[in-house]
Amino acid sequence: MAQQFAIGVDYGTNSARALVVDIATGAEIAAEVYDYRRGDAGVLLDSSDPNLARQSPADYIEGFLSAVAGAVTKAKQTAGFDPQRVVGIGVDTTGSTPIPVNAEGVALALLDEFKDDLAAQAWLWKDHTAHREAEEITRKARGGEYPYLAKCGGVYSSEWYWSKIAHCMRTAPQVARSAAAWVELADYVPAYVTGNLHPSKLARGICAAGHKAMYHEEWGGLPSAEFLESVEPGLSRFRFDTKAVPSNHQAGLLCAEVAEQVGLPAGIPVAVGAFDAHMGAVGSGCGEGTLVKIMGTSTCDCMVAPLSKRLPDVPGLCGIVPESIIPGMYGLEAGQSAVGDIFNWFVKRLTPGEFGTGAEAHAKLTDAAAKLRPGESGLVALDWNNGNRTILTDPLLTGLLIGQTLHTTAPEVYRALVEATAFGALTIINRMEEYGVHVAEVIVCGGIAEKNPLVMQIYADVTNRPMKTSRSGQTCALGAAIFGAVAAGAYQTVEAAQAKMTGVKSTLYEPIAANVAVYAKLYSVYKTLHDAFGTTGFSGSLSGVMKDLVAIRHDVRRGAK
Amino acid sequence: MAQQFAIGVDYGTNSARALVVDIATGAEIAAEVYDYRRGDAGVLLDSSDPNLARQSPADYIEGFLSAVAGAVTKAKQTAGFDPQRVVGIGVDTTGSTPIPVNAEGVALALLDEFKDDLAAQAWLWKDHTAHREAEEITRKARGGEYPYLAKCGGVYSSEWYWSKIAHCMRTAPQVARSAAAWVELADYVPAYVTGNLHPSKLARGICAAGHKAMYHEEWGGLPSAEFLESVEPGLSRFRFDTKAVPSNHQAGLLCAEVAEQVGLPAGIPVAVGAFDAHMGAVGSGCGEGTLVKIMGTSTCDCMVAPLSKRLPDVPGLCGIVPESIIPGMYGLEAGQSAVGDIFNWFVKRLTPGEFGTGAEAHAKLTDAAAKLRPGESGLVALDWNNGNRTILTDPLLTGLLIGQTLHTTAPEVYRALVEATAFGALTIINRMEEYGVHVAEVIVCGGIAEKNPLVMQIYADVTNRPMKTSRSGQTCALGAAIFGAVAAGAYQTVEAAQAKMTGVKSTLYEPIAANVAVYAKLYSVYKTLHDAFGTTGFSGSLSGVMKDLVAIRHDVRRGAK
To answer: Does B408 lie at the interface with A, CB-CB under 8 angstroms?
Structure first.
């Protein structure tokens, strides 16, 4: 049979990337990146408000046209590629990134009237202008004993859909009045390229709706009009009645106008969109028993469990949404608020000159830290310098380091910080397992996994699970391509597509038994500190903590002689 | 009346210093330092045992002869000085630094047979070879419900008299057999220079005996023979029956042989010796209501209270010995295991290159830390990097830092460490006050007090007490000179001599009310952590600690706008 291809289009914070993939093998035939042209690397800022972060929908449209056209042009140089053999297209994006549109589904920002109005642009995921509205939604949902927060960790975020819309209504009523609907970027792109823009008809993805808009079948979709009106009169106008669906559904077929500009035939199925981390998890090999950690400055942890398991609410998990990652499965999203950010902070703020700066310092600290044995520093840290997203969902928590002596060195602290993030990872895994979601192995993707074998080995030893790295360096776009192929019917299931199109690298990090044993003791110290400082129900004693660390240190050092 | 003078001789770890003082004014006429010539800057080491630290008694003798002769020669160039007008001599030394002597009181190390035997030398205060013996003494004293540890914080140290003698008996029996007695350096020097060397006759100071040899009138002097025999058969042979006395007593009169070599007339009264910190406290102005902190790498805190108060045992205080500092007063000794050492550790191990190294780094970090307001970093530290001497008497405790974010800077941590040592200082003060010893003001001496106004102001704000610095830069030798004058009868009391001979510098650090209020909140956090990690009885909750720090930080930052 002739080769067939799918195209994944991945919208990041600063650029869009198109990837052409051979659907039989996952081979990545061609890629093209479009760097957003507006604002500061694609982000529209307001010097008077550091919380504001917007994007121009024009960058999204140009991004699709330019990146897909470029990738297709490159792919044509590969034997076996033919635009006619592109069976499907998938799209992943940042989120929650809602865009106000008019009654025809045209983004207000593309109209002359609103082109310079920041409130009419896309409200980028990291826009935090709506923090007051988020607090109000949380308070109202709790006060009225509404169920809406049960699936998103108990706290509604300023980054999310309803907070942003309510804030727009209060601060930019001219935009809110002209908006007929708000559309998540993940839905907007598929709608635009298929021409199915009309708000009442465009496909809404379950990923964005479920994780950011409190959409859940259990309570009939979005929160009730009555609840939304209690947050802000008029807010219920932005409810939508469309059933939100997973990305094995089609948003439509590539429309002629767009097809022509990107060098593809019209009529190619385009999958319903979803978030980058979720499609990235699919592109990394996420499946039952396999946790995917997308590890960078922070982490996004994605996991699935069969719908047949009837999963209870898992306290502290950011989101549990049926079919948000893989159809037929619960999608579970967790995260660590800071991982690489903590290592970077230490290098920037507390690393002596002898280790150099930046990447050199990371390398030298890592080399020195790799010579240490688990437990020999006597240190334990909490990884909360940026709060704790999972399982405590508490942004006001802070860092802690314990066990310092007059001999404690920078590499010892660096290693303790790496270990702290591994303990944080284990805490998430343990919480999932407590609620019946078995985690047999971990696949890591992101820069740290590729660059730092020490981090990977520590994670393997701390979690006592094999750590793998995803084969692809562009797992989000690959995941989008997989959904393109599935939505087009080239594969019956996401799992079948994954079996052919994803893989892991040959380097496998297996737990080392001796290290696992020491880390079990250190984790017990971490967990004691975690519960003492992070929860209200702790009733244990801390008087033995420093002694335990000294004893572990002593044993390790003596054992080494 | 013609001027009169006293000479104070101060034996430190690396040198001896003689100071000639005008007893009417405290004016320091002349000084001379003798650097010990043996070993490594005066310390005899054993490369196979890092715990070993000895000193040659020959350095002590040469030190007296050379330093006093030099000081007298220099003093002669001052109008008004005449060796005939030297009324008394006082001596202070390190301790516990016991020296084995023969039946005539001659140090064994000075005999040909033993001159190269490390066990026959002085066992310097910081020799830790006897840690096992110390543990045994502690265990035996507790097991037998003996009272001996009640006055020294409940734990007997490897640095102290009986531990060292027992260790010598076990490891160097040839020395122990030849020893007729063991004499503290503080007693050995006055004995040597007065010729009253015979072990049965030489004066024993209450300072060394009370703080290091468990000597207490309450139980009839030294621990019972039966107890000592239970520690090590034969140990009771080194009990002495002499009554230990304070330093307003004379050890004897300067003998002709020594007098001639130092250019003084024979017959000058020589005071009973005491430890450097205690005489330093007297030289700094220690008195009722005035705590003296000798602040360097660690601190020694000295305080007095009238004997008429009948002070109870104060839990956690290193030593409470009647008349060990000032006659007629309880002498209370406390200490912080690390102060300057913690700041030095941070500069050496965790300070970025932009701040330079060593003294430059201290200065730059201090400048940056001085620009911060109390509470604005959101950090609190425990000052336990070298354990906690007072009030927890636990060497196995370790450091802790809490409140870090991704923005935490090196100057913020540096300031938090300074504040932690101030909180440690306040904890000692509070403990004294709880047991009826009022601390109205603090006089600080030592290098940090002179060099770092920020440290002094933070201590004033944290303790909510005025902080003063002692006028003299050589308070130990000055204190010794004061005892020389008092023992000679030139003053009736130590207090009368202090009134004339000591003083403080004009720079006074007064508490700043706004800072005091913030530090009261931060101390409450410190105390919670202190009790949670340092004691077994803590039953409070730590779940509010990080939130409290964030709230304090928020208030301070908002208040500054």
So the answer is: yes
